[in-house]
Amino acid sequence: MSRFENRRQIFHILLGVIVVSLIYFNILTSIIIFWILVAGVFCSFLCRRFNVPVISWLLRKYERRDVIGNFPGKGAIFFTAGVLLALQLFRRDIALASIMILALGDSVSHIVGKNFGSTNVNGNGKKKLEGTIAGIAAGFAGALLFVNPWYALVGSTGGLFVEALEFDLNKRAVDDNIIVPLVAGTLMVLVSFYFGI
After folding, report:
1. Which of 30, 75, 82, 123 is the 20 to 30 A CA-CA neighbour of 168?
2. pLDDT by residue (tens digit) across 132-157?
3. Long-range contacts, 6-14 (Cβ 8 Å, 24+)
4. What one-character-per-residue DSSP string does 173-195 give?
5. What integer pLDDT is reported at residue 53 of this predicted model?
6. Can you tell me the distance from the alpha carbon of 137 to that of 157, in angstroms, rounded to the nearest whole number?
7. Contact, 180 vs 163, CB < 8 A?
8. Helix (H, G, I), strand (E, B), or coil: what is residue 128?
9. Residue 73 has what DSSP assignment?
10. Per-residue pLDDT tens for 45-66?
């Protein structure tokens, strides 16, 4: 894995931990996250045509080159959308656990898979079994801060399983920043509902 990709994933982890902390301490609310999402989409349009101070620099530092020309800030926008959806759909503890699974599990799976992985999980060879296992462990550890071990295990396993498979919708890959917290949170809700754990 390139230094650039490692840097992106570490930024993803830090961003996730900061966001969860701000939500936990009631500094960041759903309405603020919504307006951040709106501002992010607006900035994305601006950055396609103009060099926007600070934002354009961040994009050059952390955004994949193939994305900058088409959808600048795509990763951050979908991350914010995933966080907002989790907060709106799930009770607070499950939402925070889902966001931690996204922040830690998704990033660690990429870092470990690209640097140490050898066993392909899907047909395109992008996802590695070693990365998925490491991601499940990292997501589980992060989720444990907010939910019991059963929820954390089911949520992290399910979230990282769908991240490894890569789903398509209308011949376009569904962004894992959306699908991971939604699947993780839904599975934790189902465990709560059906098993009352």
Report:
1. 30
2. 999 999 999 999 999 999 999 999 99
3. 6/111, 6/115, 7/61, 7/62, 8/62, 8/63, 8/64, 8/75, 9/107, 9/108, 9/110, 9/111, 10/107, 10/111, 11/62, 12/75, 12/79, 12/103, 12/106, 12/107, 13/103, 13/104, 13/107, 13/108
4. EPPHHHHHHHHHHHHHHHHHHHH
5. 87
6. 9
7. yes
8. strand
9. T
10. 998 888 888 888 888 888 877 7
Segments of the chain assigned E as strands: 168-169, 172-173
Tokens 């959306």, residue located: 178
CA atoms within 13 A on the CB side of 102: 35
What pLDDT shows up at residue 96?
98
Structure-block tokens of residue 90: 């799930």
Which of 107, 83, 93, 91 has the alpha carbon at shortest distance from 148?
A: 93
User: Mean pLDDT: which of 6-20, 61-75, 81-95, 165-179 is highest?
Assistant: 81-95
Q: Give the dihedral sign, CA 129/130/131/136.
A: positive
Which pTM value belongs to this model? 0.91
User: Domain-by-domain residue ranges, the chain?
Assistant: 3-195
Nearest-5° Cα angle at 17, 12 to 21 = 150
Residue range 162-195, pLDDT digits in tens = 988 876 665 666 789 999 999 999 999 999 998 8
The first and second tokens of residue 109, run together, are 């799976």
Task: Report DSSP state, residue 2.
Answer: -
Query: Of 163, 34, 40, 182, whose CA–CA distance to 107 is shortest?
Result: 163
**Nearby residues of 52 by Cβ (< 8 Å), 6 or more positions away:** 43, 46
